[in-house]
């Protein structure tokens, strides 16, 4: 996970993100932000002019392995106290997300012979709904 995180910093300069872009975080990045304060500080500094979005499926994945109440409470505080925004979540959008994720899964299976994890497909399916300014 560290190498992925460091590549993000190395490649950030090549991004030309318009101010106010919506950045959907996946669980790997969110978990790295939670456990690595150095990465967290740098990430906040780089993306301070953007909206950091947490998808409900990513939130689920972020919490799913926590059985200890204190750790769970710390994660809740981290999400609520940080500069994160929840993704729009209502019943109408789920049909579109599922259709998009299913299409992506078929494309991956046809061209690459494997598919990303389901939560990643759902996140990609959500981002497909939006126009420019939404980054995954």
Write structural notes for this entry.
The protein has helices at 2-12, 27-35, 37-46, 56-63, 69-81, 91-111, 118-127, and strands spanning 22-24, 51-54, 84-86, 134-135. With 136 residues, the chain is of the alpha/beta class. The chain has a four-stranded parallel sheet. Helix 1 (2-12) runs parallel beside helix 3, helix 2 (27-35) crosses helix 3 and helix 6 crosses helix 7 (118-127). The longest helix is centred in the C-terminal third of the chain and has 21 residues, at 91-111. It is globular and about 40 Å long. It starts with a helix and ends with a strand.
* Distance separating the two termini: 17 Å
The major sheet is characterized as: 4 strands, parallel
| Count of helical regions | 7
- Helix proportion of residues, in percent? 55-70%
Report Rg. Answer: 16 Å
State the total count of DSSP E strands: 4
Structural class: alpha/beta
Beta-strand residue percentage: 5-15%
Low-confidence stretches: 1-6
Read across the widest sheet, the strand sequence of neighbours is: 3-2-1-4
Query: What is the average per-residue confidence, as pLDDT, rounded to a whole number?
Result: 80
Spell out the helices and strands N to C.
HEHHEHHEHHE
Q: Describe the global form.
A: globular
């Amino acid at each position: 996970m560290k190498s992925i995180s460091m590549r993000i910093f190395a490649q950030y300069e090549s991004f030309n993100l318009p101010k106010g872009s919506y950045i959907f975080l996946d669980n790997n990045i969110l978990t790295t932000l939670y456990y690595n304060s150095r990465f967290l500080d740098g990430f906040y500094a780089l993306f301070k002019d953007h909206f950091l979005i947490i998808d409900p499926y990513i939130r689920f994945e972020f919490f799913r392995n926590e059985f200890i109440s204190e750790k769970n409470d710390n994660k809740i505080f981290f999400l609520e106290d940080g500069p994160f925004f929840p993704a729009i979540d209502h019943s109408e959008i789920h049909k579109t997300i599922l259709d998009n994720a299913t299409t992506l899964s078929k494309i991956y299976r046809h061209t690459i012979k494997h598919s990303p994890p389901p939560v990643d497909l759902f996140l990609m399916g959500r981002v497909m709904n939006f126009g420019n300014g939404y980054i995954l």
